[in-house]
Amino acid sequence: MTATIVLGAQWGDEGKGRVVDHFSKNADMAVRFQGGNNAGHTIVIGEEKFALSMTPSGVLYPHVTPVIASGTVIDPKALLNELAMLNERGITTSKLRISSNAHLIMPYHRKMDAIQERYLGRNQIGTTKKGIGPAYTDKFARSGIRVQDLFDPKIFRDKLTLSLVEKNKILTRVYNQLPMDADEIATEYLGYAEQLMPFVTDTSLLVWEAINDGKTVVFEGGQGTLLDVDHGTYPFVTSSNPTAGGVLTGTGIGPKAIDEVIGVSKAYLTRVGTGPFPTELLDETGDRMIDLGHEYGVVTGRRRRAGWLDVVALRYAVRINSLTSIFLTKLDILSAFDEIKVCVGYTSLGEQYSEFPRQQRVLYNCQPIYETLPGWRTDITDTRAYVDLPKEAQQYIEFIEDQLRTPCDWISVGPEREQLLTRR
Length: 424
Ligand code: GDP
Ligand code: IMO
Ligand code: MG
Description:
Layout: E1 3-8, H1 16-24, E2 29-32, E3 41-45, E4 48-52, E5 65-68, E6 73-74, H2 76-88, E7 97-99, E8 103-104, H3 107-120, H4 132-140, H5 153-174, H6 182-196, E9 200-201, H7 203-212, E10 217-220, H8 244-251, E11 260-266, E12 269-271, H9 284-292, E13 305-307, E14 309-310, H10 311-321, E15 325-329, E16 339-348, E17 351-353, H11 360-364, E18 367-374, H12 391-404, E19 408-412, E20 420-422
Helix pairs in contact: 3-4, 5-6
The structure holds guanosine-5'-diphosphate, 6-O-phosphoryl inosine monophosphate (IMO) and magnesium ion (MG).
Residues 12-13, 39-41, 298 line the site of magnesium ion.
């Protein structure tokens, strides 16, 4: 296991943080390649709970070099706060490396994110309002400001001033807001330069060297496959590529460097924010999933939407990412149900679908076709071997494997490090 991608196979919050933490035990490097502090990755170690938004989850192991690569967008204040929180809790962050090419989330990005959502009204995406979309918009418009610009105050001020000419027109004339002040922003941001300086480097080279030296590298996705800007449920997506392709562009490595692609999936399904969700349960069963699974967003505290596992969507994730394995999380939550449903196809507008539909109108009208499996109604949180799982739980897992033609090599039965079954 040299270079392994860990990514979300659903709509995010699958448990990627705990999975990366698991693999970090034997890893040298953990790399975030896309997204920003819209992510919220939880790791539970005994009584301690860590919620990480920007720092790779490998940071909890002192032997791991955490890397924030070029494809990410960084809010420097939020990142420095997170590092301070970690240091206060006794976690060393000195090994952290940040790409000089990563883009900065600026105060006007956060403002635009919030205002644009308000203007969308009923059609809003339900973003995390961290400025992710506007920061990536500027990146692709080639008007973004990058981490390296912090170390050249003249360039930083020039780029900022130029950017604000346009931003302030939009803020004042389109959205009826007060303009933002370049000097104020420059003073704040240039003030972060000194603190960030020791971490900043060419992370593409760093990761390449690690892989070349046979080191073990884990890539940690933010968000999930169905939130991918190209392959997700557009426009109800994030503004990056949380899929396997995003690892390559976001880190600056080639496909041959990758050995394994692990898709993290809950044993059921959740989504936070708006957009289509064919297996969503708006009844008591859904409420129970949310209560038992503590399905509330790490970043925004919002109640997540919940429903049965959708293997059509998961098959799509297997294909889009070339998944080599599934890491199935939160199986313990399903212990509460007498029977368990799995969506194996859809009907929509009079037609039947076995592949994830590309057409938004079709997707919006999807009604799930379910297979019903027996529940096990036994506490499995102390189970540590696959053979010790109730036979109905094994049947459920094998049904998923059969549907996906992909092995579920790891299954977790609780949030703690050791609440885990490994099958290889
Ligand atoms: P991420 O964004 O993909 O890292 O996932 P989140 O941290 O946002 O959400 C996953 C939540 O489920 C966290 O609160 C985890 O502590 C918790 N969790 C992870 N695995 C399990 C599991 O197997 N069982 C239970 N009950 N909770 C889990
Ligand atoms: P992790 O890494 C779940 C969702 C938001 C919204 C959409 C766009 O913890 O799995 P954005 O702020 O990115 O522009 O919001 O994407 N979203 C997430 N949902 N988990 C996440 O991250 C998410 N990051 C963004 O709720 O629907
Ligand atoms: Mg999360």
